[in-house]
Amino acid sequence: xxIRGEKQMDWKKALMYGSFAAGAVLFLTGRKPAGLAAAGIGxxxxxxxxxxxxxxxxxxxxxxxxxxxxxxxxxxxxLEQMGEQAEQAAQSGLRxxxxxxx
Length: 102
Hints:
Elements: E1 2-3, E2 6-7, H1 11-28, H2 32-49, H3 51-97
Antiparallel strand pairs: 1-2
Helix pairs in contact: 1-2, 2-3
């Protein structure tokens, strides 16, 4: 539908993208419950606007969760290794500072 030669703003699309963006910002700033709620609004809007895409997303959800879980596990392992290396480096620095004595 056009109004005075301009396309009418699609409010569902704006709500969907705005909710996802707000959810991401809130989640990254530590406000996880509010971020999940905002993302849920975006997801509900997506489901009402594109039921076929939502059905595909829902069908593939276990695959996405598995990949996300693998990513989190890899990140946790990496951070653990970095912590161990930092601890070893700190201990080595202490030995050097003491003149090689343990």
